[in-house]
Specification:
Length: 341
């Protein structure tokens, strides 16, 4: 019998490769699924590194802009996992087109499954780094993305996914994870998170570590190991029918509550020790470093985003690594890894 197919976009990334490494622990049986991985740099080294993480894996060479290829591959797959770029609506639409065609042509079998990684900034209060006395705390138990402002970050991907999961005819079983800023040194192929690399580059350019606005907003963070386990717990619930997606498809993934300026200060202190900046600590960056207020990065870094992942807890998920090491504790080591890459 042929194995069910998972089409995976972004498997070489920080979250993707961490989840691929742990996949076998969450499948009905080890190696029960065949993976097709979209990879833009399909060098023999990348292919072999991916197959080292999960052996029954083939690579299809392409980018997120190869819409026809993505649609065709999604149509041939039982499950699509997308840990690539949550701000790339064209590739999401191509995936949904392929899965919709599959749902139509296999109407008597269970609907195909789509697991998508988005971001927590859908609920950003856009305070631009200012102190807010009682910022809203969000639970995913009553979260309905279609009720959020339609100009929130990620909505160009979230809304078509919500539509495909809720429609009456040929629905797709959709699941969306919305992680906070992810931290920790990964065990997969990309070992550091983009925002640490981004902060280092901005700090070097400005000669000091900075904040977007005052940096007084608070963010929920999550260790990369726990994002991977969250994705795989949801995947397992989808495969076993324990979770159906649709209206309840969004899972907030974050548990700490850390001020933006708390991690910015650690970056400043570390980089001063390495003589890469001229000041300790942090102070607000000018707009030539941050870009204009309320742009994408202000919404991501400089809004209050405090969440409670109750849907994940209900599935038995635990943020084990986040409990052991918070976002600040391991930051100096993550900076070392990012700088030495
Ligand atoms: N890291 C965080 O703190 C964080 C927080 C919240 C949400 N997220 C979201 O989580 C997802 C994964 O993030 P990550 O940190 O794992 O990112 P990452 O390390 O940059 O990984 C992104 C993956 O997508 C692939 N990719 C990106 N653009 C592509 C393109 N145009 N064509 C083909 N492949 C492409 C990359 O391939 P290459 O190996 O070739 O680069 C890589 O496999 C993203 O959607 C991100 O927005 C991340």
């Amino acid at each position: 019998m042929t194995k069910p197919v998972i089409f995976w976009l972004g498997a070489t990334g920080y979250v993707g490769s961490e989840a691929l490494l742990a996949l076998n622990q969450y499948l009905p049986q080890p190696d029960s699924h065949h993976i097709v991985s979209l990879v833009r740099d399909a060098s023999p080294e990348k292919i072999s590194a991916l197959q080292h993480l999960y052996s029954d894996l083939e690579v299809v060479k392409g980018t997120l802009d190869d819409g026809d290829l993505i649609t065709k591959t999604a149509e041939q797959s039982d499950v699509v996992i997308n840990t690539a770029d949550s701000l790339h609506p064209a590739s999401v639409k191509a995936i949904l087109a392929g899965l919709t065609a599959r749902a139509k042509s296999n109407a008597s079998t269970p609907a195909p499954i789509y697991v998508h990684i988005s971001g927590i900034s859908i609920i950003s209060d856009r305070c631009n780094g200012a102190y807010v006395e009682h910022p809203k705390e969000w639970s995913d138990k009553d979260l309905d993305v279609t009720k959020l402002p339609h100009d929130a970050v990620h909505m160009e991907c979230e809304l078509p996914i919500a539509e495909a999961g809720r429609r009456v005819d040929h629905p797709i079983r959709t699941f969306v994870l919305n992680p906070g800023l992810i931290y920790g040194i990964g065990a997969g192929m990309q070992r550091t998170t983009f925002w640490v690399r981004d902060w280092i580059e901005k700090a070097k350019k400005a000669s000091y570590s900075g904040t977007f606005g005052e940096g007084a907003n608070a963010l929920s963070h999550i260790h990369v190991h726990d994002v991977a386990s969250a994705l795989l717990v949801v995947l397992r619930a989808a495969l076993t029918g324990k979770a159906q997606g649709g209206k309840d498809c969004n899972y907030l993934v974050g548990v700490s509550r850390t001020e933006q300026r708390a991690f910015a200060k650690v970056v400043g202190d570390c980089l001063l020790g390495k003589k890469l900046v001229k000041e300790a600590g942090c102070r607000p960056w000018p707009e030539d470093i941050t870009g204009p207020k309320d742009n994408l990065w202000w919404r991501i870094y400089a809004g209050n985003q405090i969440v409670h992942p109750n849907r994940l807890y209900a599935l038995g998920w635990e943020p084990t690594e986040t409990k052991k090491q918070g976002p600040i504790d391991g930051l100096p080591q993550a900076i070392d890894v990012a700088l030495n890459k």
